[in-house]
Write a structure and sequence with these properties.
Layout lengths: L2 H16 L20 H15 L5 H4 L7 H17 L1
């Protein structure tokens, strides 16, 4: 999966959780200020990302981020770590 596809999946998960059109979610969207998200939303985003990317994501890790675009780097690192363990 390339970056564009991964970002689209992340945006889709976030948009679904906060009930907004996917095109309203950008890399610069801030979870709280722009999307009105709270800790329950972040938990739901974590579950959605786990399903989309076949990862285990502790919610505490997600709470460290304030913008949607920051999730791509996190997902990329976690996916790379998983690939190294499997090889």
């Amino acid at each position: 999966m390339n970056r564009e596809q991964a970002v689209a999946k992340i945006h889709s998960v976030v948009a679904t959780i906060v009930h907004v059109p996917q095109e309203k979610v950008t890399d610069d969207s801030r979870f709280v200020e722009d999307l009105g998200m709270d800790s329950l939303h972040m938990t739901e985003v974590g579950i959605g990302l786990e399903e989309e990317f076949d990862l285990e994501i502790p919610v505490e890790h997600l709470m460290e981020y304030s913008k949607v675009g920051e999730l791509y780097g996190y997902v990329e690192r976690r996916t790379s770590e998983r690939a190294k363990v499997k090889s």
